Automatic annotation (TrEMBL):
Biased composition (Low complexity): 12-25
Entry-linked SUPFAM superfamilies: Xylose isomerase-like
Name of the protein this chain belongs to: TIM barrel protein
UniProt domain Xylose isomerase-like TIM barrel: residue ranges: 46-303
Residue ranges, annotated region (Disordered): 1-25
Domain of life where this protein originates: Bacteria
Originating organism: Streptomyces montanisoli
Gene3D superfamilies: Divalent-metal-dependent TIM barrel enzymes
Pfam families for the chain: AP_endonuc_2
InterPro entries referenced in this protein's UniProt entry, alphabetically: IolE/XylAMocC-like, Xyl_isomerase-like_sf, Xyl_isomerase-like_TIM-brl
Bias-annotated ranges (Pro residues): 1-11
């Protein structure tokens, strides 16, 4: 039987071009906790994030938005919003003894995340000092054994979440955690399986800890699975470093600032991400806890306008 010739290139169906999809998160409205009197009501957050021109949101701290899937779907759809990811906090460096408790916590959030149609679960390592009070909770550096527990159990988490919920975990380097600066991020990535674990690059946290986001994207591009967009005010950061301030008080002082006033420059970061040739979410997260309730919306609108000027 003769084989027919392939169609000319012009007649072949073209695959969609890779996209960077922009969204925002409760964090940009000063929301850090499921319930806090200094935070805006979740209805106001949903109303305003839509008004600011965003289509995608994250769930934020579990319990802030409705945890009933049907109610959440109704509230987001009525505002033209879709969910890109949920977020979990884990302390897997504590070893196998915390696995069952961790999984119980993760499974509830992963189930809600999957029900929204999202495909990502942002995993933030445990803080070594409290992000609200600054109280030191444990040593700021890990032993070799703790590194092994952290990497091996994170791989297990990635596989379990994918098999049971169909989600991809993206681990978020974060100030005041054990995965923070360039050295620790590289150590973590080099010790984990790319098929199980990807990275959520938060440009603000990485700059806060002295990292170069463009260099990280160019070095570990195949591991970048998700982006958080934010900037750091270098003048405030210099004082934070000098005074050894915890992250919470640093945020209250304004260390995370409105683009384009800080670092890193987001246009080269987005250009480097676009060169990876893959679909990526880029979620705006300007830490502002606590903040006046009328402050977030104007900033969100200006930030969306700025990012359009960056081509996304």
């Amino acid at each position: 039987m003769a084989l027919s010739a392939p169609p000319p290139p012009s007649s072949r169906p073209s695959s969609p071009s890779p996209r960077i999809r922009i969204g925002s998160a409760p964090d940009s409205w000063g929301v850090w906790f499921p319930d806090d009197p200094r935070q805006v009501d979740w209805r106001r957050f949903l109303d305003e994030v839509a008004q600011a021109g965003y289509e995608w949101i994250e769930l934020g701290p579990y319990g802030y938005l409705p945890s009933d899937p049907a109610r959440l779907a109704e509230e987001t759809a009525s505002r033209g919003l879709r969910v890109s990811a949920g977020t979990v906090f884990t302390g897997l460096h504590h070893g196998p003894g915390v696995w069952e408790e961790t999984w119980e916590h993760v499974a509830g959030i992963a189930g809600l995340t999957r029900a929204t149609g999202a495909e990502h679960l942002v995993v933030i390592p445990a803080f070594w000092r409290d992000d609200k009070t600054g109280r030191v909770l444990e040593e700021s550096t890990l032993t070799a054994g703790q590194w092994h527990d952290l990497t091996s159990l994170t791989e297990r988490l990635g596989r379990e979440v994918r098999e049971r919920f169909g989600l991809k975990i993206v681990v978020h380097p974060h100030a005041d955690t054990h995965i923070d600066n360039a050295e620790h991020v590289a150590r973590f990535l080099d010790a984990t399986d790319p098929s199980a674990v990807s990275l959520c690059l938060d440009t603000g946290h990485y700059a806060y800890c002295g990292g170069d986001s463009v260099e990280l994207i160019e070095t570990y591009g195949e591991r970048i699975g998700y982006l958080h967009l934010k900037q750091v005010d270098p003048r405030v950061l210099a004082d934070v470093v000098t005074e050894e301030l915890p992250f919470g008080p640093a945020v209250a002082r304004g260390v995370m600032c409105e683009p384009p006033a800080g670092v890193p420059d987001l246009e080269p970061v987005l250009a480097a991400a676009a060169r990876l040739g893959v679909d990526l979410f880029a979620i705006v997260e300007q830490d502002m806890y606590p903040c006046p309730p009328d402050r977030p919306l104007p900033i969100a609108r200006r930030t969306r306008h700025f990012l359009r000027g960056c081509g996304v």
